[in-house]
Amino acid sequence: MGFGKTLKKIRLNRNMTQEQIATGLIRQGTYSRIERDQLELDLELFTKLLERLNISSNEFFYIHNNYRVTEHESIMKDFRNLEITLPEILKNSMKRLSIYLIKYPSSNLSKVFVAYQVLYLYVEDNPELAKQKASLVWDEFQKLDNWYIDDLILLNSLLFLFPLETATEITTMALKRIDAYQHFEKDLTYLKIYFQMDLCVIFIQHQKYELALNKLNYIYENYKQKMSFQMLAVLFTNRAICLFHLNRPVEEELTKLNLLLSLYGEFTLLDSLLKIYENQKS
Questions:
Q1: What are the extents of the domains in the chain?
Q2: Topology match between the domains 3-64 and 163-282
Q3: d(C-alpha 122, C-alpha 219), whole Å
Q4: How far apart are CA 168 and CA 195, in angstroms?
Q5: Which residues are CB-contacts of 16 (< 8 A; sequence separation ≥ 6)?
Q6: 216: closest CA among 233, 190, 236?
Q7: 248: left (phi over 0), alpha (psi -120 to 50) or beta
Q8: Are the C-beta atoms of residues 162 and 135 closer than 8 Å to each other?
Q9: Model confidence over 118-173: pLDDT tens digits?
Q10: Is 120 helix (H, G, I), strand (E, B) or coil?
């Protein structure tokens, strides 16, 4: 089904006439041809028609695809939601993606495939090779004039593999790029939080505890209302680690951690974060 038939379906469901959609943009007869898929749409006109229908392009394509995401979007969604980097999960994702890339070799998903490879190398106890491949990814990104949302998500997923100076540079640039999306239909504050939280972990790994603590305090003061309870729990844990190494009281942070996760009944996560804290102490 062409775009025209989807436009017609949405227009009818909005109880709008062709004339209401076309007025001030194109002749009603021309719009009628668009709905019959007899005339191709240029991007500018397509955008204006969607505005008349009060529907976003993302929702339009979702409806056009029979209320399903495309294979491309499904692959990207899995990558965006990747939290547990077990070898089997990464292998399955790479297999699925390699099949897609055979069909569509010019797809920009090739970057995602490389990211999966890097993460797989890391979890398979080959961190040095993973870091080498990550540096090649960064070399490619430095050649680009701009980064888009999926580029930012990809860089964030690999941030922990970069040297401290590079990770700091990437985060600084990423935050500026995210600012350009402040009026976008989707709130990208979560990406700002992820980049800065991950950078704090790298600071801790390099024993930059004062720097990490200052950044964690900044994140808490500026983004606490946007953070999930899981992310807040990680923040409390990392602040406790910093405070311990700076010979300052940690009881308040550990109390917050216990109260927060007990409230949500997340005792498994609580145990995991307390183990991380104990390991960092030693």
A1: 3-64, 69-148, 163-282
A2: no
A3: 28
A4: 9
A5: 52, 53
A6: 236
A7: beta
A8: yes
A9: 999 999 989 999 999 999 999 999 999 899 999 999 999 999 999 999 999 999 99
A10: helix
CATH of 3-64, one of 2.10.77.10, 3.20.20.70, 3.20.20.80, 1.10.260.40: 1.10.260.40
28-35 helix and 3-13 helix, angle to the nearest 10 degrees: 110
* DSSP 8-class letter at 135: H
The residues, any chain, with a CB within 8 Å of residue 223's CB and separated by 6 or more, are 189, 192, 193
Pull the structure tokens for residue 123: 């979890």
- Nearest partner of 243 among 203, 212, 199, judged by Cα: 212
The CATH fold of domain 163-282: 1.25.40
For residue range 50-71, what is the model confidence (pLDDT) as tens digits?
A: 999 999 998 999 999 889 988 9
Give, rounded to a whole angstrom, the gap between the first and last alpha carbons of the chain: 62
